[in-house]
Amino acid sequence: MGDFHHNEADLKTFRSRILLAGVVVLLAFSLLLARFIYLQVVQHEYYSTRAESNRISLVPIVPNRGNIVDRNGIVLARNYSAFTLEITPAKTVGLEATIDGLAEIIEIQTKDRRRFKRLLEESKNFESIPIRTRLTDEEVARFAANRYRFPGVEVKARLFRQYPEGSLAAHAIGYISRINSKDMEWIEAEGHSANYKGTEHIGKIGLEQHYEFELHGKTGYEQVEVDAGGRAVRILAHTPPTPGNDLHLTLDARLQQVAEAAFGGRRGSLVALDPSNGAVLALVSSPAFDPNLFVDGIRFDDWDELNNNPDKPMLNRAIYSAYPPGSTFKPLMALAALTQGKRTPNQAMADPGYFNFGNHRFMDDKVGGHGMVDLYKSIVVSCNTYYYQLANDMGIDNIARFMGELGLGSRTGLDIPGETPGVLPSPEWKQRRFKKREQQKWFAGETISVGIGQGYNAYTTLQMAHALANVLNYGSVFRPHLVNTIRDPSTGEVRQVEPQPIRQIPLKREHVDLIKRAMAGVNKEGTGARAFAGAPYESGGKTGTAQVFSLKGQKYVAGQVKERLRDHSWFVAFAPVDTPKIVVAVMVENGGFGAQSAAPIARQVFDYYLLGKLPGGPAPEVEAPEDGPETQENGNGPD
Amino acid sequence: MDRIKRWARQILAHLDLPLLTIVLMLMGIGLATVYSATSADGFAKVDNQLVNMAVALGIMVAVSQTPPQKLMRFAVPLYVLGVILLIGVALFGSVVNGSRRWLSLGFVRIQPSEIMKIAMPLMLAWYFHKYESVLQLRHFAIATLLLLVPVAFVLKQPDLGTSVLIAASGFFVIFFAGLPWKILLGLGALGAAALPFAWNLLHDYQRRRVLTLLDPSSDPLGAGYHIIQSTIAIGSGGPFGKGWLQGTQTHLEFLPERHTDFIFAVFSEEWGLAGNVVLLILFSLLIGRCLMIAAAAPTLFSRLLAAALTGVLFTYAFVNMGMVSGILPVVGVPLPFISYGGTALVTLLLGIGMLMSIHTHRMLVKK
What we know:
Chain A is α+β, with helices and mostly antiparallel strands. Helix content of chain A is 38%, strand content 19%. Chain A folds into 3 domains: 50-74 and 165-249, Alpha-Beta Complex (Penicillin-binding protein 2a (Domain 2)); 80-158, Penicillin-binding protein 2a (Domain 2) (Alpha-Beta Complex), CATH 3.90.1310.10; 256-492 and 504-611, Beta-lactamase, CATH 3.40.710. Chain B has 15 helices and 3 strands. The mean pLDDT of chain B is 89. The chains are: A alpha+beta, B mainly alpha.
């Protein structure tokens, strides 16, 4: 009886607990359902995005870099495809062992290893770094057969930059090299980071750098589905890259070649402009270098040689080396005098052969002087006394103002980086330049040295050519530029660079014409006559000499001075005189008198440009005229 | 001919049609999902699973024909054997993946903890049945001890998932045997108080799993990876899923253990919330039917056994879906009838067979 009751109660308890269990099950499953609704409805978008980013990887496709061609279509920079053997250090099993193993089947030289080590230091571990470039087909096949032995090693087809003309115009064109952290900062600052995913090379100097973002093109993308192991499963979408724009230069490669050859290895620079529009026809910095060396990472010994060469081939002298212009400054001084009304064309002075200032005597180069000298004659015979007097009459402020308007002492804005502004001396400049009070004061005697292009004056060949072009152009200033047009190879769109003058200097036509006549006189009967003897075209010029070494009153005899201490030879010129098509500024370091080294180079350049005449060899050194061309009075103020 | 027909009818008579239908539907879903999860290997896994299913269904049919009184006879020997084997594992077991779970008997490797999932409810149901008329509190204490010994061994292996299931199976017997609520709540409070100590007893990786549950992103490539990838799979499935064989998380191999413990994420990614609801309904119906069987069971043994087996089934399903969707720590529990693998399937269908037996033999007992 009791047992039965007991069982009945137990059964009741059991059944109520079964019911409870049922409720618990439903509650638990409701909890799951709530979780599913949360994940799959409320948060669905978020998790969809996560799933998509899990599976989709964007693989950048680097665009073809734009070509660089000269004004006549001669290719100066282009791309070619070649196989490289690349190692991803993070994926290898023992880097040294891998390289040693590779060396057994493919030739790997010590210099290859050295370059690899250097690139490794510069890069992150997960990048792939070339150990060998330009594999032959046979080497590619040999590696393919042994591929399984080398995890983390791949043969890749890559585009390489090539400069078919070698060192020709190397300083103007520049080169590309692997992107470093500084380049990355620049790319980021310019807001191009996204477009450089996958890009490994960047322009380092010259046009390659200045027009980097034109040349680079737009990176394409491949949307690739990847699995958890990062392996590509299939391509979902393909956005092709847009190739970079081509640069069509104003530069004339053959003229450039003639100009470079004319230097014959001597140190110096030359800039040839079309005065009517500022187009750079030639830009020489001698000696030059072969930009091809840099493309796949320069080898250590090559770099060492370039760096330690006393002639500094990497230095772009045309835009970065500023020297006193010497007497090439005189035509500009004469124009300043005419423009500012300090001289008239016919106003003449008697030259006794010296100019006294305070207790200092500034000497002319010609003992006894040039006699009666007017403005025309002052240029043709390069009379110092005339300009001592003129500078003194004008005063430094007027000189600085006029020369500043001509473009001296500031960057011309040429479309390659690295220009120096040079030095346009003025009391303000001196105050900025020196820290000590006693050094900051401008002495009137310093003005007199400035008047003949010596003293603190320091300009580049580019600036001198630019200033002369501005004069010949009657004051219309065009920014010097190397690129004529930028062309989009896919759309054919052509953009002209700088077709308009950027400013106008108030110059009188008759003043400019007088200067032109006087400079023509230099090449006919003056210091340039010997270099231009027999030229079938009429040209104008002016020689100049920048003193390197002060002989403290001793007579300068070029032959007795060590080569490195010889004066720098300057020459500025233009032709034809009536409507100048070309203006050049030439500077030969330690070339002696301007007429001696620089003028013959200008002659060869003009002969080629105007007549198509190719020179037989480097420009000869012309003997200095008997009377001695100019003096170098390094007047750092009255002693 | 007639004999065969009669024989067949007799066999069919001991199968419960609702249970069989639901289980077959779940296994069908399982096969389709295993195929999706392993389609990279072709049909190899699906073929294996078909064999597993056939074997497990055979066992189910056999067990269903066995009256509960006969099943009761297995209770003590199976339990004793299980404990001995667990001791054997602790002493001579082989270590796989850092856990000592397997015992090699020369010709076959067995996982004794799996036996315990069935042996435990059998043993405790038998125990309470034996002392049905004189049930006192000490019997509950002894039952608890009988439960804790094997659980401790399994926990020590370590195998958190299996120990949870064994503990659950035993607990359900004790609960349904009528352990008074006062004691139940008291033990619950005690357990909560002991939690910090239990925490210290856990293995590092077990602790990490719990911590990872709280914040999966703390270890995205390590322990958190499973949970992160499975919640991404489930969430990206959305209301209607990406379609069968279309799950990117699955087919691009972002999901780990996708044909075994994490198969629910595969299903969920491809069938979405709609699929999940269907699955929850099927499990609810299954458990509901099992509870009905338990409620209708004639003896204390069969009642307790049926209820406990139901509880285990529920625990399996809830813990698995809970861990894959990120609300429970990751413990090694497969999704019943769906996850790939023979062992769990055999255990589960053995339980289903027992439930069928209990249900189809109830009239005989009453008589």
